[in-house]
């Protein structure tokens, strides 16, 4: 059984793809739905990692299929006990929040310890008393210790949690950010590259060694476009050609279409972001996606923290300008409560200078509470967020300028100009007629109107305005000739 399976959709047809897969298997699935040379999307997914359906969808819908395939291969190589540990992690408050962390888990299996068969504090206390090597005490004294109370204290000190798979605790090892730092996917897992099979299908012959496949653009977000009853996703940043293909999929190339939904590859409040994305245009969203795609993962974590804080950004312009102000906020990812905050300020920030032994005498909770009351920052699920004190530079918000390479709707206008039969109607709709003026005559001819309502017609001998002006000019010239009266007024009836 595959640990991850995807449903690929194009139009009304879907195909299942079990991962890890080869390029040939992906190509076959796409050929089954006639989507080998077209824009398909991941419409559904399943993963045996003990996460909720909504969490799994947030990982995989809109994700790079190469990254998902790489994740499946990494998980497929894990021994059963490490998969069991992963399921415990995904059930706990320490669960992973991105596909990047899931990929890196395979290289950080020693970051957690799972003790099966322990589901509550009493069981943990008995385990510590009678089975572990962590406590040395006379056997006859053990009966005088409350195992539940002991278990609660141990779990609190170890920051452990109880899951249906057992007792889970962090070991204190450093988390190695391998994929998060490099983003490198080994070639054998990049199944969406232009494979030999795909080239043969399209009749393209190229030298693989001389023309290596370009690095895929990171699609950090996307929108769903709708025309009538048809809907299709568009991953962003996109090209004009990709927008054109998406609109062709829903029959919206020559009809009005709307943005009805979105996805993003970072945590953000759904309703707030949805209102921003649905009330803008494709070009601005494409520019936003391109700017976000260039951010390193830590900055995306900071953005996710901002979006769940009271100071969440409320416009696309603010988010775009965030990419120009990466040092405006500071995120302390290891600070999750009042005592963590005090610990950071006293022992790590360099802002509290005193002998080490004096620092140990400070009440962490009281000191941290004092910091919180001074509003130095806010707690989020990503860590503690605080301002750096740097000024905020308004770049896009001030100018509103979108670089030409991100204005993908211009591609549609250019394409329309090449085939448009009505050049006064370049409006995104090909070969549409200009609006017709209302016919107020109800189809009657000039002779019929002359007979039935002659008063509605202009006088036959009424001179034109230009004729009157010419006549007045001629009279004025005559008056200016010698011997003519120069003070005679010229009455011009227009």
Number of domains in the coordinates?
Answer: 4
> What is the helix tally?
21
Helix content: 25-40%
The oligomerization state is single chain
Structural class by secondary-structure content:
alpha+beta
Portion of residues in beta strands equals: 5-15%
Radius of gyration: 35 Å
What summary fits the major beta sheet?
Answer: 3 strands, antiparallel
Count of extended strands: 12
What strand line-up does the widest sheet have? 2-1-3
Average pLDDT works out at 78
> What sort of overall outline do the alpha carbons produce when their principal axes are compared?
extended
* Poorly predicted runs: 194-215, 416-430, 484-494
| Amino- and carboxy-terminal Cα gap | 92 Å
Q: Your description of this structure?
A:
With 494 residues, this protein is α+β, with helices and mostly antiparallel strands. It has 21 helices and 12 strands. It has helices at 23-32, 53-60, 65-76, 80-91, 99-105, 121-130, 147-158, 178-182, 196-202, 240-249, 270-278, 282-293, 297-307, 316-322, 338-348, 356-359, 364-373, 396-399, 409-419, 446-452, 465-479, and strands at 4-10, 13-19, 41-47, 112-115, 161-163, 166-170, 221-227, 230-236, 258-264, 329-332, 378-380, 383-387. The protein has a 3-stranded antiparallel sheet. A 3-stranded antiparallel sheet has the order 4-6-5, with helices on one face. It has a 3-stranded antiparallel sheet with strand order 8-7-9. The radius of gyration is 35 Å and the shape is extended. Mean pLDDT is 78; it is low at 194-215, 416-430 and 484-494.
